[in-house]
Design brief:
With 118 residues, the protein is mainly beta. It has a domain at 46-116: Immunoglobulin-like, CATH 2.60.40. The chain has one helix at 2-16, and strands at residues 46-54, 59-65, 70-76, 82-89, 94-99, 102-107, 112-116. The strands form 2 sheets. A 4-stranded antiparallel β-sheet has the order 3-2-5-6, with no helix packed on it. It has a 3-stranded mixed β-sheet with strand order 4-1-7, with no helix packed on it. A hairpin with a 4-residue loop joins β2 and β3. The mean pLDDT is 89.
Length: 118
């Protein structure tokens, strides 16, 4: 009986250990000059933005990334444009502005963004 169990175990292992590898036939580049990259590929991993924010009161303003990390903290003056430059990872598409009791989500659609707080 023990021989049969051992034989079945070995047979099972041999059947399932020889599986065809699933994968593409993409060649592996040996040198960076051999890489084939789409012409529209953006090699930058970060983007620079200019934010121009017009507040309706004089107080502290916070600019945060989408994960809540504070990027800028500034005292702004009523009706005077606060201009700043920030650099963010390319995958981030919004910044959060906290002003008084309000939270504003600003979409990063252009390199220069003008926003008036209401």
């Amino acid at each position: 009986m023990k021989k049969h169990q051992t034989l079945i175990l070995l047979l099972t292992l041999s059947l399932f250990s020889c599986q065809k590898e699933i994968g593409g036939n993409d060649p592996i580049a040996q040198d960076i000059d051999q890489l084939v990259v789409d012409g529209n590929f953006d090699w930058n991993s970060a983007k620079n933005y200019t934010l121009e924010i017009t507040p309706y009161a004089s107080t502290v303003l916070l600019i945060k990334d989408q994960d809540g990390k504070v990027l800028q903290k500034a005292f702004v003056h009523k009706d005077q444009v606060y201009s700043t430059q920030i650099q963010l990872p390319a995958f981030q598409k919004v910044v959060i502005v906290e002003f008084l009791e309000h939270t504003y989500t600003i979409q990063l659609t252009h390199n220069k963004i003008q926003y008036t707080l209401n």
